[in-house]
């Protein structure tokens, strides 16, 4: 359950030409090397969709639009839960400017080729379904 103390971290499943962008974390040590949907914590007063647009601009240097939330909320740790939104690329080419050491565009068939953070795995079937529908 989301309480007033719970913060949301929003990850963006950026869908483009039948692929989704996966990002390899560069820090901190506990999660470095694992793959995630780029994004970050929503600031007070910011909607998750707004936070996602801001984080994708900061981390990847792109302009993107949040599309829809994938149903579900997954605890990251006490007081922090993960939401995943699909997003579309409006302008730019994603680059690992901040927080990531590598980016990969994955097709539905390639989704299990990277070592996702545990919480992100819950959203993979829905991401796969959207990639397959778009193909
Ligand atoms: N961005 C992102 N974080 C995720 C995902 N899955 C997952 O478990 N996390 C975890 C990793 C971190 O513990 C936390 C998000 O932290 P973050 O470091 O990305 O957030 P932020 O950019 O706002 O960073 P900061 O301001 O707190 O430094 O959520 C995901 O798909 N994307």
The tally of strands reads: 7
User: Which architecture would the CATH scheme give at its second level?
Assistant: Alpha-Beta Complex
Each distinct ligand:
8-OXO-2'-deoxyguanosine-5'-triphosphate
Structural class: alpha+beta
Shape estimate: globular
N-to-C order of helices and strands:
EEEEHEEEH
What percent of residues adopt helix (DSSP H or I)? 10-25%
Chain-averaged pLDDT: 96
**How many structural units, i.e. domains?**
1
**What's the CATH H-level homologous superfamily?**
Nucleoside Triphosphate Pyrophosphohydrolase
Q: What is the radius of gyration computed over CA atoms, rounded to a whole number of angstroms?
A: 14 Å
Number of helices: 2
- From the N-terminal CA to the C-terminal CA, the straight-line distance is 35 Å
In the CATH hierarchy, the third-tier topology is known as Nucleoside Triphosphate Pyrophosphohydrolase
CATH hierarchy, class: Alpha Beta
Ranges where pLDDT stays below 50 over 5 or more residues in a row are none
Tag the structure with descriptive keywords.
single chain; 135 residues; alpha+beta; Nucleoside Triphosphate Pyrophosphohydrolase; seven-stranded mixed β-sheet; Nudix_hydrolase; DNA repair
Quick overview of this protein structure:
This protein is of the alpha+beta class. Helix content is 18%, strand content 41%.
Characterization of the model:
With 135 residues, this protein is α+β, with helices and mostly antiparallel strands. It has one domain (7-128): Nucleoside Triphosphate Pyrophosphohydrolase (Alpha-Beta Complex). 18% of the residues lie in helices and 41% in strands. It has helices spanning 48-60, 124-134, and strands at 7-16, 19-25, 35-36, 39-41, 63-77, 80-91, 100-106. Strands 1, 2, 3, 4, 5, 6 and 7 form a 7-stranded mixed beta sheet that branches. Strand 1 (7-16) and strand 2 (19-25) form a beta hairpin. It is globular. It starts with 6 loop residues before the first strand and ends with a helix. The model has no long low-confidence stretch (mean pLDDT 96). Bound molecules: 8-OXO-2'-deoxyguanosine-5'-triphosphate (8DG). The site of 8-OXO-2'-deoxyguanosine-5'-triphosphate (8DG) has 13 residues, from strand 1 and strand 4. 8-OXO-2'-deoxyguanosine-5'-triphosphate is lined by residues 9, 11, 31, 36-37, 39-41, 76, 82, 117, 119-120. Pfam families: NUDIX (PF00293). It is an enzyme of class 3 (hydrolase). This is 8-oxo-dGTP diphosphatase. Its cofactor is Mg(2+). It comes from Streptacidiphilus cavernicola.
């Amino acid at each position: 359950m989301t309480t007033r103390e719970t913060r949301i971290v929003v990850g963006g499943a950026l869908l483009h030409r039948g692929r989704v962008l996966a990002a390899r974390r560069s820090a901190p040590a506990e999660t470095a090397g694992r793959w995630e949907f780029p994004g970050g914590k929503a600031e007070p007063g910011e909607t998750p969709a707004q936070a996602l647009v801001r984080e994708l601009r900061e981390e990847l240097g792109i302009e993107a639009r949040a599309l829809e939330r994938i149903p579900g909320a997954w605890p990251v740790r006490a007081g922090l839960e993960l939401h995943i939104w699909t997003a579309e690329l409006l302008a730019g080419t994603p680059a690992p400017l901040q927080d990531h050491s590598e980016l990969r565009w994955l097709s539905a068939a390639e989704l299990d080729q990277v070592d996702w953070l545990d919480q992100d795995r819950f959203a993979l079937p829905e991401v796969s379904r959207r990639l397959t529908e778009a193909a």
